[in-house]
């Protein structure tokens, strides 16, 4: 009751003020409201939300932030200390604690390079929990399980190190080369979470210059999001495509992939035409 | 330029409309704006935000939700399959895959109960990564590390099972008893994340009936948030305190804790008095 009376007094005051000032000013002043968030006045055209919805949205934001903090704490709790920080040869010394590893991974990419032979310690339980391929390999008592050594072909020592590290920590420091290397390993050992991570990174780095190579790479390693993004970039620039060196190389090496580019382009043209047609009708 | 002209035309139209209608109506209509969120009209008193801030807040919310999805995926990736689902005696059968455990935990709470002797399989690497107490125990080649058996005193089999499960999954199904049991283990083995989780649950279940017991429990197990919450509830109801049975028990068993209740009450009274005093002066 008290509140209503207050309002009518305020309105009355407003009227009084209106009578004193010019008509043009009154109209726009009556329309003005102050934004709680940016503290600037706004008129009907720029109206956002009422106070209640603003407060609700604020509460939601606070809740979401709390949830994020909780999830971050959970990630920190679940994250493993990577066994890579204490490689086997150092574990023998009494300065570093043991990591209780029961298996090693060896990159057999470049056997000429002596560093390739450095084994990376790991835990069967971790590998099995992160990759269905390692699970099948280790649980079925295959050679790798008995020997305690898993050979990873076609991977550099650095890439394998980063791969194992990701299995323990869900973290990787990516550049384009490392993202490609890790995507290949993630696809091979079916570590979906890592594959998504690499794909996102590579899509963010996509440009006209690397689009054809990215397209071929995505095809080869079954990276669908990256494939779509690269294909879309290529078909948007068809007029420049045939002059590119990578195009000629791809045509020679894998003409089927070139055919798929043309098919995607054609289907895009048909869709665009259909869209234009339907928008002209309405 | 085009936009400005539009605006002035609209304003002009508005003027025209105002002239036709009653003054009172015009004023309140001009003040009304439509909330984008709840679709209801609001006036100056209930103004929330302008459109720009609303859209910005919306974007922030979307971003936070994406971050939550990413973090949830990370948690799912980092979460371990608990070794408890495949206890040792079943692992011998060929139907369940091995979990590659290298240590067992045994609850030595009630040795008369035969189920207490059931060992719970685990991995040294996991225990070490979650608890500094297990780390010291296992890395320093103490008896537990050599024998591969860790005896956990004063814990039921169920509590230990839930404890180990939490170390692998960061999940626990709590009731008040289980939250107390897990808090005790979390404090003993310094698993902070679990302790916070149990404490939050117990604080949410705090009421006048369990406040004195909760206070004593929190004191004993160094649960500061729970202690503060319980103490605050007790000192808010001092007039009823001395009639409570738990109070008499606590006074007999641990009079120091009762003294601390009175000290907290006194300090609260002094603070309240000081607050009143300063607000009267202003």
Automatic annotation (TrEMBL), chains A, B:
The reply to whether Cell membrane figures as a keyword in the UniProt entry is: no
Q: Native species of this protein? A: Morus notabilis
Q: Name it.
A: BTB/POZ domain-containing protein
- Which residues lie in coiled coils? 50-81
Question: InterPro entries, from UniProt?
Answer: BTB/POZ_dom (IPR000210), SKP1/BTB/POZ_sf (IPR011333)
Which residue range or ranges hold the BTB domain? 101-176
Among the Pfam families in the record, one is BTB
Write the record's keywords in alphabetical order, separated by commas. Answer: Coiled coil
């Amino acid at each position: 009751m008290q509140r209503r009376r207050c309002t009518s007094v305020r309105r009355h005051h407003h009227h009084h003020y209106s009578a004193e000032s010019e008509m043009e000013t009154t109209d726009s002043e009556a329309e003005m409201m102050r934004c709680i968030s940016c503290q600037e006045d706004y008129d009907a055209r720029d109206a956002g939300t009422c106070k209640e919805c603003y407060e609700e949205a604020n509460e939601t934001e606070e809740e979401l932030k709390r949830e994020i903090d909780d999830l971050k704490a959970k990630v920190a709790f679940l994250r493993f200390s990577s066994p890579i920080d204490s490689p086997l040869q150092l574990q023998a010394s009494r300065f570093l604690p043991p990591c209780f590893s029961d298996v090693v991974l060896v990159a057999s990419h470049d056997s000429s390079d002596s560093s390739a032979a450095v084994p990376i310690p790991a835990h069967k339980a971790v590998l099995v929990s992160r990759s269905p391929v390692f699970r099948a390999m280790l649980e079925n008592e295959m050679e790798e399980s008995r020997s305690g050594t898993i050979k990873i072909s076609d991977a550099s020592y650095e890439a394998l190190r980063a791969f194992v590290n990701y299995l323990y920590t869900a973290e990787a420091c990516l550049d384009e080369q490392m993202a490609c290397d890790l995507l290949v390993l993630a696809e091979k050992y079916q570590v979906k979470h890592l594959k998504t991570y690499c794909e996102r990174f590579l899509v963010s780095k996509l440009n006209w210059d690397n689009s054809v190579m990215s397209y071929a790479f995505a095809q080869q390693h079954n990276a669908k999001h990256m494939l779509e993004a690269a294909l879309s970039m290529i078909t948007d620039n068809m007029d420049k495509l045939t002059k590119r060196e990578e195009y000629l190389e791809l045509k020679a090496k894998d003409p089927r992939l070139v055919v798929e580019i043309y098919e995607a382009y054609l289907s895009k043209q048909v869709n665009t035409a259909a869209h234009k047609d339907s928008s002209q009708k309405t």
